[in-house]
Amino acid sequence: MQKIVFCNIMMKARLDRFRYKVSGNSTIAFDGEVIFPINGVLAKTLNKDDSVKVVLLKKDDINNNSDRNVGEFMRELNIINKGIGAAIDYKVLSTPHDESRVIQEKLLKEMVDELTDDAAIYADITYGPKSMPIIVFSVLNFAEKFFNADIKNIVYGKVDFDRDNNPVNPELFDMTPLFYLNSLANTMECEDSDQAKKLLASILAS
Length: 206
Known about the structure:
Layout: E1 2-8, E2 21-23, H1 37-45, E3 51-60, H2 65-81, E4 87-96, H3 101-113, E5 120-124, H4 131-146, E6 150-161, E7 167-174, H5 176-187, H6 193-205
Parallel strand pairs: 1-3, 1-5, 2-7, 3-4, 5-6
Antiparallel strand pairs: 6-7
Helix pairs in contact: 3-4
Protein backbone atom coordinates (compact mmCIF):
# COMPACT_ATOMS: atom_id res chain seq x y z
CA MET A 1 0.00 0.00 0.00
CA GLN A 2 1.16 3.54 -0.76
CA LYS A 3 1.37 5.59 2.43
CA ILE A 4 2.38 9.21 2.99
CA VAL A 5 3.41 10.59 6.37
CA PHE A 6 3.65 14.29 7.19
CA CYS A 7 5.44 15.19 10.41
CA ASN A 8 6.29 18.58 11.88
CA ILE A 9 9.85 18.64 13.26
CA MET A 10 10.55 20.46 16.50
CA MET A 11 13.09 23.29 16.74
CA LYS A 12 14.03 22.72 20.39
CA ALA A 13 17.28 21.14 21.57
CA ARG A 14 15.79 18.91 24.27
CA LEU A 15 14.26 15.66 23.05
CA ASP A 16 12.17 13.50 25.37
CA ARG A 17 10.95 9.95 24.85
CA PHE A 18 7.52 9.00 26.15
CA ARG A 19 5.23 6.03 26.34
CA TYR A 20 2.06 7.82 25.31
CA LYS A 21 -1.26 6.94 26.88
CA VAL A 22 -3.80 6.94 24.07
CA SER A 23 -7.04 8.87 24.47
CA GLY A 24 -9.89 7.46 22.43
CA ASN A 25 -8.42 5.42 19.57
CA SER A 26 -6.89 2.32 21.14
CA THR A 27 -5.79 0.95 17.75
CA ILE A 28 -2.83 3.35 17.71
CA ALA A 29 -1.62 2.53 21.25
CA PHE A 30 2.09 1.62 21.24
CA ASP A 31 3.81 0.02 24.21
CA GLY A 32 7.22 1.56 23.54
CA GLU A 33 8.75 4.99 24.06
CA VAL A 34 9.09 7.43 21.16
CA ILE A 35 10.25 10.98 20.60
CA PHE A 36 7.85 11.48 17.71
CA PRO A 37 4.30 10.26 18.45
CA ILE A 38 3.61 9.33 14.82
CA ASN A 39 6.37 6.72 14.98
CA GLY A 40 4.41 4.83 17.61
CA VAL A 41 1.39 4.89 15.30
CA LEU A 42 3.52 3.65 12.38
CA ALA A 43 4.88 0.86 14.56
CA LYS A 44 1.28 -0.42 14.79
CA THR A 45 0.15 0.25 11.20
CA LEU A 46 3.10 -0.34 8.83
CA ASN A 47 3.26 -3.58 6.86
CA LYS A 48 6.08 -5.24 4.95
CA ASP A 49 4.50 -4.56 1.55
CA ASP A 50 3.96 -0.83 2.24
CA SER A 51 5.70 1.83 0.17
CA VAL A 52 6.03 4.81 2.51
CA LYS A 53 6.96 8.41 1.77
CA VAL A 54 7.81 10.30 4.96
CA VAL A 55 7.69 14.08 4.47
CA LEU A 56 9.44 15.91 7.29
CA LEU A 57 8.40 19.55 7.69
CA LYS A 58 11.37 21.46 9.03
CA LYS A 59 11.63 25.10 10.03
CA ASP A 60 15.18 26.48 9.96
CA ASP A 61 16.11 27.61 13.48
CA ILE A 62 19.11 29.70 14.51
CA ASN A 63 20.71 26.85 16.47
CA ASN A 64 20.20 24.20 13.76
CA ASN A 65 18.30 21.99 16.19
CA SER A 66 15.76 21.05 13.52
CA ASP A 67 18.52 19.61 11.31
CA ARG A 68 19.60 17.30 14.13
CA ASN A 69 16.01 16.41 14.93
CA VAL A 70 15.38 15.30 11.35
CA GLY A 71 18.14 12.74 11.85
CA GLU A 72 16.61 11.66 15.16
CA PHE A 73 13.27 11.04 13.47
CA MET A 74 14.87 8.90 10.77
CA ARG A 75 16.85 6.89 13.30
CA GLU A 76 13.80 6.25 15.44
CA LEU A 77 11.58 5.10 12.58
CA ASN A 78 14.35 3.03 10.99
CA ILE A 79 14.78 1.11 14.25
CA ILE A 80 11.04 0.47 14.40
CA ASN A 81 10.98 -0.59 10.75
CA LYS A 82 13.74 -3.18 11.20
CA GLY A 83 11.15 -5.61 12.46
CA ILE A 84 8.63 -4.67 9.74
CA GLY A 85 10.55 -4.23 6.48
CA ALA A 86 8.45 -1.54 4.78
CA ALA A 87 10.07 0.48 1.99
CA ILE A 88 10.57 3.98 3.42
CA ASP A 89 11.67 7.06 1.48
CA TYR A 90 12.38 10.32 3.32
CA LYS A 91 11.80 13.83 1.99
CA VAL A 92 12.66 16.97 3.96
CA LEU A 93 10.83 20.22 3.20
CA SER A 94 12.76 23.13 4.74
CA THR A 95 11.39 26.64 5.07
CA PRO A 96 12.57 29.70 7.02
CA HIS A 97 11.13 30.30 10.48
CA ASP A 98 8.97 32.99 8.94
CA GLU A 99 5.18 33.23 9.12
CA SER A 100 4.76 35.40 6.02
CA ARG A 101 2.12 34.43 3.48
CA VAL A 102 4.78 33.82 0.85
CA ILE A 103 6.52 31.19 3.00
CA GLN A 104 3.28 29.54 4.07
CA GLU A 105 2.05 29.25 0.49
CA LYS A 106 5.44 27.91 -0.61
CA LEU A 107 5.28 25.14 1.98
CA LEU A 108 1.67 24.28 1.15
CA LYS A 109 2.53 23.96 -2.56
CA GLU A 110 5.58 21.82 -1.83
CA MET A 111 3.48 19.52 0.37
CA VAL A 112 0.83 19.16 -2.34
CA ASP A 113 3.61 18.25 -4.79
CA GLU A 114 4.39 15.21 -2.59
CA LEU A 115 0.85 13.83 -2.85
CA THR A 116 0.01 10.79 -4.98
CA ASP A 117 -3.36 9.37 -5.96
CA ASP A 118 -5.12 6.87 -3.68
CA ALA A 119 -2.58 7.03 -0.84
CA ALA A 120 -3.25 6.47 2.85
CA ILE A 121 -2.08 9.56 4.74
CA TYR A 122 -0.85 10.00 8.32
CA ALA A 123 0.17 13.26 10.01
CA ASP A 124 1.74 14.38 13.27
CA ILE A 125 1.03 17.97 14.38
CA THR A 126 2.65 17.72 17.81
CA TYR A 127 5.61 20.00 17.11
CA GLY A 128 6.34 23.10 15.06
CA PRO A 129 4.91 26.65 14.96
CA LYS A 130 1.20 27.28 15.35
CA SER A 131 0.67 27.76 11.62
CA MET A 132 1.71 24.20 10.82
CA PRO A 133 -1.48 22.35 11.85
CA ILE A 134 -3.52 24.77 9.71
CA ILE A 135 -1.28 24.14 6.70
CA VAL A 136 -1.35 20.38 7.28
CA PHE A 137 -5.17 20.35 7.50
CA SER A 138 -5.37 22.40 4.30
CA VAL A 139 -3.14 19.96 2.44
CA LEU A 140 -5.09 16.96 3.73
CA ASN A 141 -8.38 18.56 2.63
CA PHE A 142 -6.85 19.03 -0.81
CA ALA A 143 -5.58 15.45 -0.82
CA GLU A 144 -8.95 14.00 0.13
CA LYS A 145 -10.85 16.02 -2.48
CA PHE A 146 -8.51 15.79 -5.47
CA PHE A 147 -6.23 12.78 -4.85
CA ASN A 148 -8.79 10.35 -3.41
CA ALA A 149 -6.64 10.12 -0.28
CA ASP A 150 -7.64 8.08 2.75
CA ILE A 151 -6.81 10.20 5.80
CA LYS A 152 -5.92 7.57 8.40
CA ASN A 153 -4.56 9.32 11.50
CA ILE A 154 -3.73 12.89 12.48
CA VAL A 155 -2.08 12.72 15.88
CA TYR A 156 -1.12 15.19 18.58
CA GLY A 157 1.07 14.28 21.54
CA LYS A 158 0.28 16.35 24.62
CA VAL A 159 2.28 16.63 27.85
CA ASP A 160 1.93 18.60 31.08
CA PHE A 161 4.85 20.24 32.87
CA ASP A 162 5.59 19.98 36.58
CA ARG A 163 6.97 22.71 38.86
CA ASP A 164 10.51 22.01 37.64
CA ASN A 165 9.38 22.31 34.01
CA ASN A 166 9.77 18.59 33.41
CA PRO A 167 7.26 17.00 31.01
CA VAL A 168 4.79 14.59 32.60
CA ASN A 169 1.54 12.78 31.76
CA PRO A 170 2.15 12.16 28.04
CA GLU A 171 -1.08 11.51 26.15
CA LEU A 172 -1.76 10.88 22.47
CA PHE A 173 -4.85 12.27 20.76
CA ASP A 174 -6.21 11.28 17.36
CA MET A 175 -7.44 14.47 15.70
CA THR A 176 -8.80 12.68 12.61
CA PRO A 177 -12.48 12.97 13.68
CA LEU A 178 -12.02 16.74 13.85
CA PHE A 179 -10.62 16.72 10.33
CA TYR A 180 -13.59 14.77 9.01
CA LEU A 181 -16.00 17.03 10.89
CA ASN A 182 -14.43 20.00 9.11
CA SER A 183 -14.75 18.20 5.77
CA LEU A 184 -18.40 17.50 6.51
CA ALA A 185 -19.04 21.14 7.47
CA ASN A 186 -17.68 22.20 4.08
CA THR A 187 -20.31 20.06 2.31
CA MET A 188 -23.30 20.76 4.58
CA GLU A 189 -26.22 22.59 2.99
CA CYS A 190 -28.59 24.42 5.32
CA GLU A 191 -31.16 27.15 4.86
CA ASP A 192 -29.91 29.26 7.78
CA SER A 193 -27.52 29.31 10.73
CA ASP A 194 -30.06 27.81 13.17
CA GLN A 195 -30.56 24.79 10.94
CA ALA A 196 -26.79 24.46 10.59
CA LYS A 197 -26.33 24.46 14.38
CA LYS A 198 -29.04 21.84 14.84
CA LEU A 199 -27.48 19.63 12.16
CA LEU A 200 -24.06 19.97 13.77
CA ALA A 201 -25.47 19.10 17.20
CA SER A 202 -27.12 16.03 15.70
CA ILE A 203 -23.85 14.93 14.07
CA LEU A 204 -21.86 15.40 17.29
CA ALA A 205 -24.42 13.46 19.29
CA SER A 206 -24.30 10.43 17.01
